């Protein structure tokens, strides 16, 4: 999978971007900050963004795991189809980021192999050949394995997973806790709060292992790229909900993210 590249300077070991970005970097085998919750404001919309950082962890096989979670202002009903078809959406609407996707083997399900080529806006990454490991409809989870590409120069293992979960709207939860008396008098107003715009939590989990002898990667950029990717797909999903073009269908293959 290919995370969209940014030109932001992310050289600090444990930092948080001003726009609510999720930024974590590991130094060799050190563990980064875990369990942090970031509350920031988007520089364009001024809306608050909630980003949870689980940080960097080691498993028993000398690989590391980086996890971020970001709350999106759209329900899983719209976001999940868009996430599965993210490559097609980006190629169609943002060719400067992703210029093409060719299915080399399979039909887009587990075991399929595809070649994604990136445009000039993606940064230093030019292509990624990846295998689709998992498409879990029940748990709304996608897993990919990078087989070839620019990132293989640095990573022996690069396996990202993306998943979605339904979350209650924050304002609805607040109204429910504080408005019991008001609910008895004006139940319709409380119901409006409960029926607020649905939201979902998007999770990015990257399992990786470095090539021997290479310097520690800037995991901060990968996490920031994942955040940008989720926001882009969220925006496209909202657009697709209004226009419902043929590009959004169940037969198109799902996407991965790389950096």
Automatic annotation (TrEMBL):
Superkingdom of origin? Eukaryota
Q: Which positions fall inside the Bet v I/Major latex protein domain?
A: 61-239
Q: Which PANTHER family match?
A: OS08G0374000 PROTEIN, OS08G0374000 PROTEIN-RELATED
Which SMART domains does the record cross-reference, listed alphabetically? Bet_v_1
Provide the protein name: Bet v I/Major latex protein domain-containing protein
GO BP annotation list: abscisic acid-activated signaling pathway; defense response
The cellular component terms of Gene Ontology attached to this UniProt record, alphabetical and capped at eight, are: cytoplasm; nucleus
What organism is the protein native to? Answer: Ceratopteris richardii (Triangle waterfern)
Question: Mind telling me which residue stretches traverse the membrane in this protein?
Answer: none
């Amino acid at each position: 999978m290919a995370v969209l590249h940014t030109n932001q300077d992310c050289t600090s070991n444990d930092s948080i971007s001003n726009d609510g970005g999720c930024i974590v970097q590991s130094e060799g085998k050190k563990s980064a900050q875990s369990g942090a919750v970031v509350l920031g404001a988007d520089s364009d919309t001024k809306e608050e963004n909630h980003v949870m950082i689980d940080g960097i962890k080691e498993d028993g096989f000398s690989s590391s795991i980086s996890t971020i979670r970001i709350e999106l202002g759209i329900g899983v009903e719209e976001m999940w189809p868009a996430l599965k078809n993210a490559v097609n959406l980006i190629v169609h609407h943002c060719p400067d980021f992703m210029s093409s996707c060719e299915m080399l083997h399979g039909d887009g399900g587990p075991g399929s192999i595809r070649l994604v080529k990136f445009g000039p806006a993606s940064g230093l990454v030019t292509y990624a050949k990846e295998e689709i490991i998992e498409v879990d409809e029940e748990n709304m989870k996608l897993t990919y394995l990078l087989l070839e590409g620019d990132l293989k120069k640095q990573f022996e293992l690069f396996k990202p997973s993306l998943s979605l979960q339904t979350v209650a709207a924050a304002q609805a939860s607040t109204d429910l806790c504080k408005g019991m008396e008001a609910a008895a008098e004006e139940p319709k107003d409380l119901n409006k709060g409960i029926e607020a715009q649905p939201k979902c939590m998007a999770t990015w989990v990257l399992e990786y292992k470095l090539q021997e002898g290479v310097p520690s990667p800037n995991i901060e950029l990968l996490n920031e790229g994942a955040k940008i990717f989720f926001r882009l797909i969220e925006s496209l999903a909202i657009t697709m909900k209004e226009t419902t073009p043929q590009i959004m269908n169940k037969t198109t293959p799902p996407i991965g993210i790389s950096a």
